[in-house]
User: Which sequence fits this backbone?
């Protein structure tokens, strides 16, 4: 459990990289035999690609570094419960264990909305949820609170501009 927390903290550091560039702060780390193989953070907005979730990027890098698509000796740590796409990629890559932080009641595919790992696929990763959950959830909450605040500010500025005499 202590090792799981250590690697989750590394995933949180990846999530902070996403936060710093205005991305939803989700980070992932792939580990084999106690060593980090790869890491990734959410880059969907930055790279304009729906596939660029933290987990997908970390899995892709791990496959490249390890020279194959089978990651059956690897664990994947991610700060938010995986979505269906990412959970499917974990099944396909044969990830040994999936360890996540915060639960995702709106899109989680590892128990919250659905349980993809419980379906009769040819591979079922071991699943551990809620590791450093509060810290992971807090990062997401802060991000969305700031985003809503910025959007409200822009809306007020737009309303003030359109109401001013110079707007005519």
Assistant:
């Amino acid at each position: 459990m202590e090792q799981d927390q250590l690697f989750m903290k590394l995933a949180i550091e990846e999530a902070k990289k996403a936060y710093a560039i205005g991305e939803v702060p989700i980070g992932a780390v792939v580990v084999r035999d106690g060593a980090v193989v790869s890491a990734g953070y959410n880059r969907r907005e930055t790279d304009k690609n729906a596939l660029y979730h933290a987990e997908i990027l970390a899995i892709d890098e791990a496959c490249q570094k390890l020279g194959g698509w089978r990651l059956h000796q690897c664990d994947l740590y991610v700060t938010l419960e995986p979505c269906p796409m990412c959970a499917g990629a974990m099944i396909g890559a044969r990830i040994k264990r999936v360890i996540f932080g915060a639960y995702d009641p709106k899109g989680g595919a590892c128990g919250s909305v659905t349980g993809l790992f419980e379906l009769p696929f040819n591979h079922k990763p071991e699943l551990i949820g809620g590791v450093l959950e509060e810290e992971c959830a807090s990062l997401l909450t802060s991000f969305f609170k700031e985003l809503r605040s910025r959007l409200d500010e822009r809306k007020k500025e737009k309303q003030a501009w359109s109401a001013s005499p110079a707007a005519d």
User: Anything to note?
Assistant: The mean pLDDT is 94. DSSP finds five helices and five strands in the chain. The beta strands are 27-32, 35-41, 74-80, 97-102, 126-128. The radius of gyration is 18 Å.
